[in-house]
Amino acid sequence: MNDRFDNIILPDNTPDEAMPPEIARELERVSVSRRRFMQASGLAALGAVVAGCTAQPRHVVPQVTKQADITPGVAYWYAGTCAACSANCGVLHKVREGRPIKVEGNPQHPLGQGGLCAKGQAFVLDLYDPERLKTPLNGGKQRNWRTLDGEVMAALKDAKNVRLLSGTQSGPTTRSVIEEFCKQYNARHIVHDAISLSAIADAHKQTHGARAIPRYRFDLARITVSFGADFMGAWLSPVEYARQWAESRKLDKNAPARLVQLEAAMTITGAAADSRFRLPDSERGAALVALANAVAKKVGKDQPFDAAAPKAVAAAEIEKLAGELCNLKNLGKSLVIAGGNNLAEQLVVNQINMMLGNYGATLDLANASQQKLGDAEAVDGLLKELDAGSVDVLIVWGANPVYDSARGADWAKALPKAKFSVAIADRLDETASLCKAVATDLHPMESWRDHEPHKGLVTLSQPAVRPLYGGRQAEESLLSWANIDKVVMHGTEPEVMSKASGRAKKAYRDVLKDFWAASVLRAGETWELAIQRGCVDHRGGAASPAGSNVARAEGAKAVQAAPKGYEVVLYESVAIGDGRQANNAWLQELADPLTKVTWENYAALSPASLAALGIAEGDVVRVAAKAEGRDVTLELPAVKQPGMADNTVAIALGYGRTKACKIAQANSQSGVIGANAYPLLSASVVAATITAAGRKTVLAMTQTHDSQEGRPHAREVSLAEFIKDPKAIAKEPVSNATMWTGHEYKGHRWGMVVDLNACIGCSGCVVGCQAENNLPVVGKEEVATRREMAWMRIDRYYSDDKPADQGAVEDNPKVSFQPLMCQHCENAPCETVCPVLATTHSSEGLNQQTYNRCVGTRYCANNCPFKVRRFNWFNYSYADPSLNLVLNPDVTVRTRGIMEKCSMCVQRIHEGKLQAKKAGIPLPDHAIKTACEQSCPTQAIVFGDMNDKNSEAAKLAASGRNYVLLGELNVKPSIQYLAKVRNSGEV
Amino acid sequence: MSHSVESELREPLVHGDKTLHDITEAACAPMERKPNGLWWAAFLVALTCLGIGFVTVSYQIATGIGTWGLNKTVGWAFDITNFVFWVGIGHAGTLISAVLFLFRQKWRTSINRSAEAMTIFAVICAAIFPLIHMGRPWLAFWTAPYPNFRGPLWVNFRSPLLWDVFAISTYFTISAVFWYIGLIPDLASARDRATGIRKKIYGIMSFGWNGSARIWSRYETAYMLFAGLATPLVVSVHTIVSMDFATSVIPGWHTTIFPPYFVIGAIFSGFAMVMTLLIIMRKVVNLEAFITINHLENMAKVILVTGSIVGLAYATEFFVAWYSGSEYEGFTFINRATGPFAWAYWIMVSCNVITPQLMWFKKLRRNVVVLFILSIFVNIGMWFERFVIVVTSLHRDFMPSSWTYYTPTMIEFLTLLGSFGLFFTCFLLFCRVLPMLAFGEIKGVMRTGKHKHHDHKHPAVIHKHDVAHAKKHEKEVAHV
């Protein structure tokens, strides 16, 4: 019935800035109305895209007359919304010859403002995942849509108890569809978040009367105190927050903001923090209560809670923190947040923020976040209903509770008890495989959809490609099922008759458009503009209702007893997140920013804990725990994580997928990568016993040495030092005596500046580079042999100097991140040694690698002081040819036996130069952005023309905070680094 | 030959009252009789190793360099270690034949032929490694500056690898020609003794040598010239090989001491390999009378001297690393001696510096068993020297983030084994088909130490096969 998707592709053109200038000029000349133009171009785009996606045409027919606005070789950009997590960052999909090949942050979108995380960058690979279902299923048998609809309808017809379980769906249109469906069948909609933050919403219901998660404003906070919330790595909306944090730390401001992190595990937020304390999760409540009391004292209020004293953080430190928070210049401009999902703790957090006057300033409830709408209690209620067998029809959409909930095993038992169950899923995952029927969903990049990450900020998704495998968008399925009139049986084959009218008859694009016209768009806004920009922003100023004080008893509830054994900390890793993208090879091979481990999760333990257990890194340990009555045992390799709290074990969620994840099941022995830690998930602290399993594994790590050995690679100064002499770094003498005249750069001279003060190690750039430059995936064994192919890596060093708490050096080290790509040296050591001139210097300062000429002596890589060159040890190719569709046609795919390395995105440089030439203008600064620069949420990387003294890169390179790596070698890198400035609060 | 006065006290260079005919017989016998069981056994082992090497290298070329244990940080290991090792081995031959010739070291005549043959085969073994270490060896011809249709695309004359190409090929060519020229009179003798197809082949190979005085005169001029040409190459080849490392920026490689250090190391290792081979050969083919304990002792002295210089070079490297004040340089050497590859470093030091010091004792110097064990130790030590230089410098250089360890794969071991297979296959074949002793030259030095007893005897026993040489000898006697 709805196999036709001809109505899906109507790309309403790109945002203005991406519009080729010749089209813009032509547009002005013929003065076609915008609408008319949109229609025409959309139609043309449709034609080209449809033609490009037809499977294996028998005859290739040359295009006699070129279509007006489709040029092979020219990329089209479609605004959309990222669905890699629930943060809903705005993205642009780059489409070449009908194939989406790259996802980039949308600079016009208010959340990420162009930045994107690793998961978002890798999202495009999921689109081509060969394990997506091709047809709907029922009872394991293939169905066509007509039959499936009939079968679902037959089940729904007499159903009394219909339940719809979905992930967070914030879009107003989507919610209207859900409402329509629920109304029709008197169904209940339950929202499940794999990693729930429902305690924050519940706490606000108690204190502010509205169940909502506030919109956090890290950019306005002069000091942020985070109790274990990894808000730049995984918590709620990391890209948005990382961007805000970077904004608040700009050194040109009077004083950069300060970040204090108190955490049990080591996170990238903790690594970026100016001050970091080790705080076991079991003491978080006590620390919060102590801080609340200390703040109350400072602001002259009664102590809100009974006194509590955490052991891990000295009372004086808490006092000092309270002092900083209550400092006049910070009052009302600070932010206290806490990770975990414990209601009492969140109530204490609210109390602290209320006392500090942060509501209405850095905490905005008027434009509350809707990025996690899950209600853990309701999900548990549904499980009970299912277990009792009282659910007639269960529809699961975009949720996988069998895998990603603490009670997955119970779900697996209860789910088949539903009389009829249908999963709207794109693969037979752990949950879908237990449902009776599967209505194949589309990938979000093939779908029309809206989202509302903040109340008032409504963002759009539009398809970037015609559906690759005959699926049907979830909303269309729901609408169809809500509007089916009757079922006619043809023998055993049911046929459905829809109502003549209603939204089900319409393509979902029209449903969305009509709903927007009626309910979303305001005067002066048009659908076309919205879809070009990707969103409409109706958010008002920050506001908050007055809060009511938290009951004194909550403080006592928040204080937990220290458990016996090892405390379990579960976290979302930067790469795999909650596990929905576990089948993504780019993400599996992305090194964890801190441990540098790829391809599995592990039990991270502090050095002292490892010593106490008498085990070494790589030894397999058995983590046995009782979590809310469930006995859970996981076997994981131990990994040493300096900076972790002792007697704590940190385990990443998202691993241990067992269904429909070929990549995540790539381990030949166990058939699964890593172990599933969801069963350990709990609102309270779980204690575990750890024993050695007597086995060893080889960890695939991209970096194994933690110390800089006192070498000045990733440099850092304190804020006090920086204020004393902001140009001290650049004053260090660098010998550049030479007998030769250097290269002459008459036109451009490309260079890059990397700000270590902004880099948080999030690795979005690493995956961005991978997508842009067709970097191969090499697999766990090859990574273990240290042959990963990343053109840019992020070096992570732990400091050698004594930490503040005077423990052992590795107990709480400072962390330095250093993105490292080809330094494009002026006197490049690689260039002189190549016998066949395969690597040469360009007239614009690039160090070029000519793949065709390379014979593969590897001499260049040996002689590279930065070790950024990568060799093709084998022919690396995707196991499934459908993944080749993701390759960037502008970048050569390399064969085995040759060297490759960062090209500074030379294809982008050429494109930018060409555009400027065609427009007849000098190349504007920032017209060219390398893939890493484009992706960076904190804008730590700036590319530019060093010959143009007004370019931002040239200015930064003369800022005085700049230095080059290994200056004494006189290789003259084109990449400048800006030293990190740590604001440890002394200024 | 030049006029020379020799002490009456000098020991004879050839032992056991040999006549000129005895020498010819002894030198030609291995070519003329059927090989014995020992030869067959050795040949089969060598051929098997060569076969294994061939299969291994074919597999590696078909699959990729990834079959080796290299990684993003260590881009060279066994390949270049083997290359430098074999080039080093190849040094002794030319040194013995050319340099010792120019210095009139007559004792060289018994060993120079096999030493030169060893040179040729070692250089062949060495040349394989730069070839197969390429990611795309089928494009190896791009390293040659030949006219092409790729516009101005040419080779990179700044690259030491390219210098290697020239240095090795020049060295190989000169060594081979020099060797062959030396072979001609002996091949003629072999021709004169042979019949049938062998006579034809030796006839072609000896270029119609007739043993006339004019031919002898030209031969000796040519030999002298080539000796002069080859001598600088002894220095240049390993100097240039060392520049692969010395011109780089990597601490542990970037060292001005490398050229002399490498040349001395090459002589050291070359003499050790010659000693290994000759000790086996003189036993197996009964050449004790020609390759005397005096020869071995002389070589042991060279090993002692060069081994000590090598030890001095090691110490100098450490001194300079400390004296330079460069933290990277300093670290590299501390890492060598104490880091993860310290085991390799200490194998190197014990084999190359400590064991040769035993050669201060005459008793040990003249003990064949001790010398054999010593030569094996030096061979091992010098292989590890190259391994230490290549791998320990790379595995921990400037960026600690990229520090790695390196573990070789079976493929690399088998490739090394294959290179030994190739070397010994060639050498064993050489023993069968070409004169192992430069008997034309040996005859010229027979008088040494024999003045008193044989001065007037030996011209009288000229055999018909020795006509060619007799003429030469007469000329010499006339000089005296």
Structural notes for this entry:
- The complex is a heterodimer of chains A (987) and B (480).
- By secondary structure, chain A is of the alpha/beta class.
- Among the domains of chain A are: 16-127, Single Sheet (N-terminal domain of TfIIb), CATH 2.20.25.90; 198-369, Dimethylsulfoxide Reductase, domain 2 (3-Layer(aba) Sandwich), CATH 3.40.228; 563-701, Barwin-like endoglucanases, CATH 2.40.40.20; 716-755 and 823-901 and 903-982, no CATH class.
- In chain A, the strands form 13 sheets. In chain A, strands 5-4-16-15-14-6-7 form a 7-stranded mixed sheet, with helices on both faces. A 6-stranded mixed beta barrel of chain A has the order 22-27-24-26-25-28.
- In chain A, a hairpin with an 8-residue loop joins strand 1 (76-81) and strand 2 (90-96).
- The termini of chain A are far apart.
- With 480 residues, chain B is mainly α.
- Chain B has a single domain, classed as Formate dehydrogenase/DMSO reductase fold (Up-down Bundle).
- Helix content of chain B is 68%, strand content 0%.
- Chain B is built from 17 helices and no strands.
- In chain B, helix 3 (78-102) runs antiparallel to helix 4 (112-132) and helix 4 (112-132) runs antiparallel to helix 5 (160-193).
- The chains are: A alpha/beta (987), B mainly alpha (480).
Kindly state the mean pLDDT of chain B as a whole number?
A: 85
Largest sheet of chain B: none
Taking all Cα atoms into account, the compactness measure Rg of chain B is: 24 Å
Q: What is the molecular shape of chain A?
A: globular
Straight-line N-to-C gap of chain A: 68 Å
- Looking at the structure, the CATH topology of chain B is Formate dehydrogenase/DMSO reductase fold
Q: Rg of chain A to the nearest angstrom?
A: 28 Å
Please identify the structural class of chain B as seen in this structure: mainly alpha
Largest sheet of chain A: 7 strands, mixed
